DNA alkylation repair protein (Tistrella mobilis), 370 residues
Amino acid sequence: MTDTAARPDLKEPALKEIFDRARIEAIAGHLADLSPAFDRARFLEAALRDLDDLALMARLGQVSGAIHAALDLPVERALDVLRDLAPRMGSGFATLILPDWVARFASDDTDRALDALAFFTRFGSSEFGIRPFIRRDPAHVLGVMTGWTADASEHVRRLASEGARPRLPWSFRLEAVVADPALTWPILDRLKTDPAIYVRRSVANHLNDVSKDHPDWLLDRLAGWDRDRPHIAWIIRHGLRSRIKAGDARALALVGADRPAELRVEAAAITPARIRPGDRITLAVDLVSTAAVPQRLVIDYAIGYVRPTGISRKVFKLRTVDLGPGERLQLSRSQVIRDFSTRRHHPGHHAVELLVNGAVLAVTGFDLGS
């Protein structure tokens, strides 16, 4: 495999190239094989129109719309063709054209559409395609999805949680679920001991969404879960990550960090102290327990990013550890200070706080030049 990180002259292809000309022509070939009703020329004309100007999700929508335009069949027969297409496409993001087609063109028969989405999710994910159905009829659709929590396929079980997330990235918010998290609680409660990490990670992400709007409601319910069971403890720890980063005492208690840390900070420093954009910083920490009994420590660090309007603080995970009396813990973490589409850096002093069990135990920092 080529190491693009070691070859600055090479770049990873843009995500939108998932739907490049070769992929679209391959889809056309499969559909032509599967149905005499498929108009290959019409599909290619519609799917390739202004392709270079379109971003990833726009390409996805254009391809699924082109299928609809070129496959002149009733919905139920078109779905049969698309079910046959799915395994030919393999698995991966490109298969999301199939649930997208269902959401846009098969919405008149909800139960048939949900059955199709449960089938297609095995090849990629129907998490985006199912959301218009939830928004239109949350009681019925979430009832069906609750039943999916017992499905033999981990992909379908994951869809029950992921598709109903109130704040799913790259999709619209489900305002009914944002307003009332009890709507999806039966799904999450049934999946809390799921054997698949793929499913449990979705449950944790769903809980993290809920924590942003209803933290106390969520903490009340998680307090009733059996935290001695490893799968449940993992879900709670990851599902409460935003509350833990915020230093929420109740969230910290649920992950075992239920008292202030008893530590001596031997060292907490950033090197180098002066950098330019693109440089790497390293945080080195040396801690010694002063407690008489073992203690659970949730250790994070926060960077105060300089902004034109003030300071924007972002918390990063460092470590969760159990430390015995008198034990020493040395940690380090490196990261490159570079611009992203969601974060631009500005010159000035950036304070870095060491956080343990929600409290600031030390402050260091670095100066960023222009």
Observations:
- The radius of gyration is 25 Å.
